[in-house]
Amino acid sequence: MKRIITAAVTAAAVGLYGAAAQAESLKIGFLATLSGPPAVLGQHMRDGFLLGVKQAGGKLGGLDTEVIVVDDELKPDGALTKVRGLLERDQVDMMAGVVFSNVMMAVYKPIIDSETIFVGGNAGPSPIAGRACSPYFFTTSYQNDQNHEAMGKYAEDAGYKRMIVMAPNYQAGKDSIAGFKRHFKGEIVDELYTKLGQLDFSSEITRIAAAKPDAIFTFMPGGMGVNLVKQYAQAGLAGEIPFLSAFTVDETTLPATQDAALGLQAGAQWAPNLDNAANKEFVAAFEAEYGYAPATYAAQGYDAARLIDAALKKAGGKGDKQALMAALKEAPFESVRGDFTFNTNNFPIQDVYVVKAVKRDDGKYVTETVEKVFDDKVDAYVDECRMN
Amino acid sequence: MSATLFAVQTLNGLQLGILLFLIAAGLTLVFGVMDFINLAHGVQYMLGAYLAVAGYAITGTFWGAMLIALVGALVVGLLLEALIFRHLYDRDHLDQVLATFGVILFLNEAVKVIWGAAPLTLPMPDLLSGSIEIMDGLLYPVYRIALIVAGLAVAALLYVLVSKTRAGMLVRAGATNAPMVSALGVDIRRLFMLVFGFGTMLAGFAGILAAPILVVEPGMGDNLLILAFVVIVIGGIGSIRGAFLAALIVGLVDTLGRGFATDIAKLLLSPSAANDVGPAIASMLIYILMAGVLFFRPTGLFPVRGG
């Protein structure tokens, strides 16, 4: 009953004050995968975003901000229906989030076609960075190939001659290996493609041990990565054959792999120990608020909220959409990753690092930067983007 | 490719088979004896792993964790039986599938609410944390050997229970003709409850044993459930012996397929085509095997005699 009264009062208020009342609030639809095994990724991204909103006093750009968090369940068709609801029923001012590329590809076009500003929090598939780029889409994450390319470059620079690469047998896995090969010029002794959701890696580990490569590179997201990392360590390979990875060793999997992952390496554009004031504040605030260490997804979500906040302030509110888009493009905020500018395709130009898993003094397992692989990395698809 | 490599891959396959057997045994027991399709078997496996993680947090030892998890898995299983499953025994299989699928959704979500979405871990017991070098540069964890031993022990125990004891005889009789056994004065409901509780504990036990080598996360049982069904269909539904042998076959076929399919494809195709074809075939092998078995032996390789 109370809710009905509130709704009635709100409706009356909107009716009375019309546009004036609306202009003082901001409604953001936030799409994230929050169920099933990959829910932890969506959780990091959402928590990071909500922390950004909270730190702005619940008012991004001074506007009362309502974030409608929606679970896409990693189902592209279901996500599409939910996004239509956000756009048409809830009339959101902006969209944000999205963890997985297949969901992104499903919801991207309807959002862009409705001329709604969309700030991506993770997925960065190549079509969106290239041919299908849009002035309405910005991302605070990366183009998908970035971390794989970084590991390829790192392996090349480290002088590895013989490598084994391993990824799940699906599109993202193939893309990962292709990205790795872009900068690695040595010999790939073996390409191992595993089943999606594979549990036991002893067969692959045996092959690796038999081939004795200089190092391996793998993309094994989520629970698969946990299985692989544990079994890799248990087979005694962790200290012997360097383990380079992307989206495999991070703060979402480290609580499960713990000591088994220590020393394993990954490519990332951010780590909790990056030395800048914005990052220090973010990591401390995040851990105080949620009690766990943030992963890149959390940092990206947080940056998304702070980007929106800063752009709204710069544009003087949400009224003039063109001005707001221009303000977003300037990225007028202090990113937790330090250097951050948008390229012409609205994907970040940013530094990329090799990070490794460490155990912090307080007992938490986190990643830590080892060295910078790319300075101001530009993605490989920007030239295909014709923004109009 | 060397004989050593082949031998090690065979060992890997047998070990995966044993793990599959631990899960499939409870499933085939419940399905075969009670004619009840329990899709929730996979989440009961998950629950075993989660309860073990919780037990470890309380007791600080693997063995304490195992005890707590076994008791917990049994309690939850019996609760589920009393609250939900008992009312489904007389319904058709579709109703059972729907209801137990609901239990999957409920428990996966419940686990996430209680323990969070992030994957968890259970450390190995110190006693079994060593390893032996079985190939140059490759260590084989003692824990995995212990897992094989545990699987064989469960197989032996089940064999003795089902074929040599009075309870086992009643169970077999109940499976063949429940009303008749009931008419002879045996409390068939109680018997079924015992079987179900035992099956649940087996699933939980498998979850506990798998926790130190596999990820503990919501939905961890869903993939394994499918494999377990493949195993019991190949082995013959309700047959413990069939489940055991089929699990070993599936484990071997899957592991050797993954280990060598690409190499074999490379003999016939260009390397890049082989990299496409090899893994695709490897991941289909067990399903092809199942289809073949269903075609030639619709009741499975080792059907229950007189069943």
Q: Could you report the average pLDDT of chain B, rounded to the nearest whole number?
A: 89
Taken as a percent bin, the fraction of beta residues of chain A is 15-25%
Number of domains of chain B: 1
CATH architecture label of the largest domain in chain A: 3-Layer(aba) Sandwich
Shape designation of chain B: globular
Q: What oligomeric assembly is this protein in?
A: heterodimer
CATH structural fold name of the largest domain in chain A: Rossmann fold
Most extensive interface, chain pair and sizes: A-B, 44 and 50 residues
Helix tally of chain A equals: 14
What structural category characterises the helix and strand content of chain B?
A: mainly alpha
Separation, N- and C-terminal Cα atoms of chain B: 45 Å
Please give a structural write-up.
Chain A is built from 14 helices and 14 strands. Chain A is an alpha/beta fold. The termini of chain A are far apart. In chain A, α3 runs parallel beside α13, α4 (76-89) runs parallel beside α5 (101-113) and α7 (146-157) runs parallel beside α8. With 307 residues, chain B is mostly helical. Chain B has a single domain, classed as ABC transporter involved in vitamin B12 uptake, BtuC (Orthogonal Bundle), CATH 1.10.3470. The termini of chain B are far apart. Classes of the chains: A alpha/beta (388), B mainly alpha (307).
